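Q: Sequence in, structure out?
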Amino acid sequence: EVLPIEEAKRRGAVALFDEKYGEIVRVVQIGPRSREFCGGTHAERSGDIGLFLVTAEGGISAGVRRVEALAGSGALQSVVQREQLIRSLTDVVKVGERELLDRVQKLMERSRELERQLEQHQQQSLVSKGGDLVARAVLLKDGTKVLASVIEEASAKQLREVADDLRQRLGSSCIALGSVSEGKAIVLTAVGDDLVGGYNAGELL
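A: Exactly. Output:
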């Protein structure tokens, strides 16, 4: 309806935004409870909107929330796409829709367990390589052992564990280890506990 602003207020219409209104305003009512001022009507009736599907919601600033949604044919298309995705997933994991979530959770748990076992195996392999590296350490005149080596495809965590193992094996030592993991270069230096006062790992790096 188009009404004088005072009449709209008497009817209980709500202005949602800090906008300036003239003497004549649009008032949109949906059902018995929603009656609001409106800057412009985009649908002749609520039925034209059809399905309303919220796709995202979050805070954009203090006290302000943003809701993103699809309506009408766009919402229906999104539902169809979701249904197609669910069917594709059930075909891949060979279960019905009701068992899909449980099946995916079990697959994720299995994947994490295999990753853990692989990491343990890789670490054991690296520790074994660390034992082979001990013989390559160079002994300085002051009794300090120096070892520098590249270990292929080792993560920063794995290099730290290998360095700790080498420090125990070598005793008074300065160690430098390098690797390339996931396209990133990693260099680690370590100093034996008894040499901390004499050598600085950061300066060695």
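The first strand starts at residue 2 and ends at 4.
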